[in-house]
Write a structure and sequence with these properties.
six-stranded parallel sheet; 47% helix
Length: 339
């Protein structure tokens, strides 16, 4: 196949979720220089930032200027879910949050409705930049469910409301929502979540976003569990290679410390598609076979962390070009699997 026809995608904030438009444009320009054809727009994937219409046009024109197509975005569920305590990352997903002003899962109706407005804002962003899929996190306060089972019933009763309310809005915009498998959340709770939602909502509205690194850390018996189970509803990917974590670290008595260890081990390495990178544990041929069977728009999105050594922009671009090559190879793998 002619190389010029190979597609590739890397997320727009590969070098961190930077706020300045100058820094954002630098990242997009680097993606274009490295050869990427697509991106998943990820700026402001966390927090309560709301895009104005003029900023949505700015994103559109930025993509057009550099010849990159944003076929998906990563929406925010509101608030900061990951914080740092004494320099270490802490993931706050075991209980409900009380310090977030826009949270579509909140029991406070005003806060919940503000969260719905935030979701609609990101659907509008999709419409402005031509994206057809919106990836979304949905944190599960599973420790609360374990301690007070009635809280789970209340949680789902409340969290179905925003999806009921935005279903028509998203369909009118031609945008499908893809719920992502999460880090620091046990597999069994996520299975229940996906099953409930996919039974309730149709495929034109709601599907699955596969994060390969999260799955590698949280699915202990089968690194590809969510991929095998939900690929027929898979509309988006966050493809990254990772390392493993020991049961001793994951299941230690101090749950907060266990979450910190998981976060530390979530490497977001460039997928080692051709086996030349000497890193990672995932089988990319197998993943490509499932992507080929999924009802998703190609290319699949990579989600990596790339920073130049000692802040070197030259090295940053070099790594991006390595990532681009692996993305092209993965795209070819998917095409071969489709045959």
């Amino acid at each position: 196949m002619d190389k010029t026809k190979l597609l590739s995608s890397c997320e727009s904030d590969y070098n961190s979720d930077l706020h300045s438009w100058i820094d954002i444009e630098r990242q997009v320009a680097n993606l274009a220089e490295a050869g990427f054809t697509h991106t998943q727009w990820m700026q402001n994937w966390e927090g309560e930032y709301t895009y104005s219409p003029s900023e949505m046009f700015q994103v559109r024109d930025l993509m057009n200027h550099y010849g990159i197509h944003a076929h998906s975005i990563h929406a925010t569920e509101g608030g900061k879910r990951t914080i740092r305590v004494d320099g270490r990352p802490v993931f706050r997903n075991r209980y409900r949050f009380t310090d977030i002003r826009k949270d579509y899962t909140s029991l406070n109706e005003y806060t919940r409705l503000a969260g719905v407005d935030l979701l609609k804002n990101r659907i509008d962003l999709c419409s402005h930049i031509g994206a057809s899929v919106m990836v979304l996190h949905m944190q599960l306060p599973y420790k609360l469910f374990e301690e007070k089972p009635d809280e789970k019933t209340a949680y789902y009763r409340q969290v179905f409301k925003p999806f009921d309310e935005i279903e028509g809005y998203a369909k009118a915009a031609g945008v499908r929502i893809a719920l992502e498998n999460l880090i620091c959340t046990p597999q069994s709770w996520q299975d229940e979540q996906f099953d409930l939602f996919f039974d309730r909502y149709d495929e034109d509205f709601l599907g699955f976003a596969y994060d390969s690194g999260h799955c590698a850390l949280m699915c202990r018996e089968d690194l590809y569990h969510f991929l095998r189970k939900y690929h027929k509803r898979m509309y988006a990917t966050h493809l990254q290679d990772n390392e493993s974590i020991s049961d001793e670290l994951l299941y230690q008595e101090d749950g907060i410390q266990a979450d910190t260890e998981v976060l530390i081990h979530d490497r977001h390495w460039i997928p080692n598609v051709d086996g030349t990178l000497d890193q990672g544990i995932l089988d990319w041929k197998l993943i490509a076979e499932y992507v080929a069977k999924a009802p998703m728009q190609l290319p699949a999105d990579f989600e990596v962390m790339i920073a130049g050594k000692d802040g070197s922009e030259e090295d940053e671009l070099r790594q991006l070009k390595v990532c681009h090559r692996q993305a092209e190879l993965f795209y070819q793998m998917v095409l071969d699997a489709k045959k």
